[in-house]
User: Fold this.
Amino acid sequence: MKFRKVAAVLLAAAMTASMMSGCGKSAEIGASSAKESSDAAEQTNDEAKAEEEATAGAEELDAVKTSSAGEDVKEFTAFFAVPGDELNDDNEIQQKIAEITGAKVKETWLTGQTAEEAVGTLIAGGEYPDFIDGSDGTAQLYAAGALVALDDYLDNYPNLKNFWSEEEWDKVRQDDGHIYWIPQFGNPYEEDMTATPAEAFWIQTRVLKWDNYPEIKTLDQYFDLIERYNEANPVMEDGTSNIPYTILCDDWRYFCLENPPQFLDGYPNDGSVIVNVEDKKIVDYNTTPTAKAYFQKLNEEFQKGIVDPESFTQSYDEYIAKLSSGRVLGMVDQAWQFQNAMDTLKQQGLESQGCSYVPLALTISEDLTPQYMSEPAINVANGVGITVSCEDVEGALQFLNDILEPEVRILRSWGIEGVDYEVGDDGIFYRTDEEWAKSTNSAYKASHGCAYSYLPNYTGLLADKINTSDPKEQPSEFIKSLPSDTQECLKAYGCETYVDMMGGIAPVPGPWFPMYSYSNTMTTATAGGTAWTKMGEIKHEYLPKVVMAEDFEQGWSEYLDVYAGCQPEDFLSEMQEELDRRIENAAKYQ
Amino acid sequence: MASKAEKVKSPVKKFDWKEFKRQKVLMIWAALFVIYGIIFCYLPLAGWVMGFQNYTPKNGLLHSEFIGLDKFRQLFSDTTFLRVIRNTLAMGVMNLVFTFVAAIGFAILLNEIVSKGGKKTVQTISYLPHFLSWIVVTGILHDILSGTGIVNELLLKAGILSQPLNFFAHPKYFWWIVAAANVWKETGWNAIIYLSAITSIDPCLYEAASIDGAGRWAKIRNIILPGIKPTIMILLLMNVGNVLNAGFEVQYLLGNGLVQSVSQTIDIYVLKWGISQNDFAIGTAAGIFKSFVSIILIVIANQIAKRSGEESLF
Assistant:
């Protein structure tokens, strides 16, 4: 843990350094983050003072520690093998939730490692935090016997028990028939209110505005627009040159390079394969004609200098720094992966130059209907589990149960009334502009907000059934939360949300969806899992080569040769088995 | 040397309780280090059992099924592993040769500086990078070798390149970048030991050489180099055993998908398959193989040194 922290600090330092050398604009980033931290310092000073005053009369030192958090607050630890932001120890809403539930959770997140490495290190050490979400390493945790079976307990915790239906709980059962983790996402209460997309081709609003907001539907139109824009406007207002298109290719994040072929073909995000709905057969998207066309396009654009030549060697931090500078016109990404960059763009006021990103749902040809967004579905591969190191399993489950109570749900997403949001006469929650600005300030988030974002929570509506769970999804608020250039852009297209830009949300194609929840649990213990690991390695090496190749055809056939050597058929047949099994299982509940 | 001394006295010495008591303090210190060695170097070797088992953390060392040499067979039929051995050896040898030559050369050059203050300053500055962690060094490397970094700027200004070169995208540069990073980081530090060896050379020799009309160059060749030869040999021997420790952090931090076929070392392989894929057995097998090769290398190097009448470790 110590090493990770040190590494994080150093990485942060290296990142700042690289941003400094990047371009002139970055001075402002540095300044703004410096300001943030001084704000945070001030805030903690104030708090410390307030606390001092409050406890001035207290006789014992211990009282200082417990006074703000109430009596006997249980402290749990949690590790989530995904990147995230740590909260300050004296976080205000966390204290409030602790007063209600009698417990708090100290969360730590992934830094500078892959999920599998982090989880593998924990397994090798044999000591775990109380709660864990192993992300891609979940299967390893189960195999190592690190998780406590939860099914015997669940009946005592109605909020948790009712969180998923009986059918869904059965999907989470492992081969020994027990439930070891609680999937925490994709669970709308009453109604799905999703307003933000996941993966998409993103483009800056200035590019669209320059061409009077044209219809962009295909990959060719997208790159054509970027090319024309960049030719007419090669630099930003301050003279920094644009990066027309960049690709994130760092470690496991290289899906931004490899998985668009499934979307371009009009299929939803099954993640690792395409499922042909007609004959219920697995199709490998890595070698389809669409995949070839997509990589050929990237190759062409790379030769023209449109694709950032540093795409395949940049780290995630360098990528985020590039996006935050506003230089990058377009890229493929998951919205959650560059949320920080969006916030930074806003804080720097780059929305005035039209540097905010809007999503586009592209296909390879106009006759296809894109399905970038699907209705929420349970992802059975991951979830939060309780480890064998936890000494108070009942207490831990009680806490998970309690944070699903209506008042805690409001605290987790909206915050405190009068501070973070207001209530209108009709009971509709809203935020003032100032409250919205605060909500994107990272220092404020760390000292005040506490979403427990990787512990179970509903999306959709709150218990009152009139307000949304996520403030950003509140229809009356959504437009306010957006940067001004995005608002203008959405208006020009006649859209109310990002979702409208993406052509709406497609229904779940079938009970098997999403297939990635199976491929994510594969390990090298099976032939299919070994093939899957090798395919990943080969794609990570050869797809960049294909894009950079001087002779595309030769590069592509080389890739196909090496790819075939990984025996992808082993992987595909195991996926087919799982698909058949899922369809069969679902039939039992109809 | 010790064995020669013993031969003069008596070849077999009986245990002498009095002698032992007299050296009580020494014995206690020695015992501490023996215990340290047992706990941290020998006890962990019990874990090697994993390499011969179908090990799962759930069953532990005692209850996992024995599978003999299966994991080793799997290892050597894996082309990735063979490539990883090649990378490790190549980078190990390159690091060894370049850091070695650079350190000796640097020590000699430094020794030639007459000004005391200048010498001290250069020496201090040159060994500072040793204290930087690799994560910082790779950060710096990423920056100076980036498209807008100083190296590209210089090459562009000098007209050697017409457009920036992405150094990390080409497998052919990777080993050289690693070697250069090692040289930059360790030269000053490694030079210290040679410098002290040079200082211990009898000044009379220099005077005598001067009288014979030897210039600086001749002094370096005929006095300094022979004078530090024993130090060089011992350090070389010790480092040969380290060739397979070609590094982990540098390659891990500098590597990317494009260069992974040349960047991965045995240590990264162990991390990837042992820790990430949870196959502790194959990770252990790779580790055993690495130790085995290291021991062989060190024995061979030692024999060569002995045969050629030089200093040897054992």
About this structure: Chain B has one domain: 59-307. The two ends of chain B are 10 Å apart (CA to CA). The longest strand of chain B covers residues 53-54. The longest helix of chain B spans residues 79-112.
